[in-house]
Amino acid sequence: MAEHIERLRFAEWEGGVSPFAVGSKKLGMWLFIVSDSLTFSGLLVGYSYVRIASERWPMPFEFWPTTVMATLMTFCLLSSSLTMALAVRASSLGDRSRTVRFILLTMLGGILFILLHAKEWAGLIAEGVRMWENPWGVPLFGASFFTLTGLHMLHVASGVIYLGVIALGVSRGRFTHEDVEISGLYWHFVDLVWMFIFPLVYLLSVKMP
Amino acid sequence: METTHAGHAGMGPKLYYLTWVWLLTLTAIEVTLAYFHLPVGLMLFLLMGLSIVKAALIMAHFMHLRFERLSLVVTLIPAMVLCIALLAVFFPDGVRAFRLAVR
Q1: Taking the model in full, what pTM does it have?
Q2: Which residue of A lies nearest to B3 if distances are taken between CA atoms?
Q3: Complex prediction ipTM
Q4: Which residue among A45, A192, A199 places its CB closest to the CB of B59?
């Protein structure tokens, strides 16, 4: 009997105590990530649909400032993912102060991303881009641009708040390693989504010199 | 595939730094590529290919999926990829307007 239970514990498909070998909170975050990636996919497919259904989709992004800024934003997000991975590692080693420091660095990357993005939005709005119109024709350009990047920015902003709560909790010794790891999963996911928005929305709409 | 919290083999900071360098390199390639005069289909193929590699790097190393049990990976990823692929069913409708005699 004991042997049977032991076998089930480590069997991959026969149920057992923990078939995925992760805690329920971590599995929950993974399921959220799957559903959220479908939300973003839906938006990206919607954007691609209206783009191929339009005769002349605007390609207005200048090398300076838009491409440079968007590349810098990508750098901020990728670097913040690195510091988040290092935070999770520090927390697995039980080093609380290093964990908090790395989480704060991650938040800094996220905040820089938001500031650069806001500056870029302000530039486009000054050029006359709105949800319903823009100087280059196809009104859906503005709608799809602001919806996609806006939803992503909302994710970054809520991620910064989430990480702030985790950092505060870790410094007070309230959260476990698993909580840090789960917040890391969310943060890396936000980074991952940007890896698709950046080429599809920005790089495919650059103004050729 | 068994996981414990501290110390997966090969999960040191070196792997994270290396992943970060690769992600930055691939991003630089993408940005450079965007300024090549390529047919849009080829451009889309190359950019999406590179992005999928980047996504895989993030999931495997930063999100530790490479070090999780295989049952978790095969439960989450193939279904998600299938659902996303199914969304492509709408694309033929996107070009329908161009095929109509009257616009």
Answers
A1: 0.90
A2: A21
A3: 0.90
A4: A192
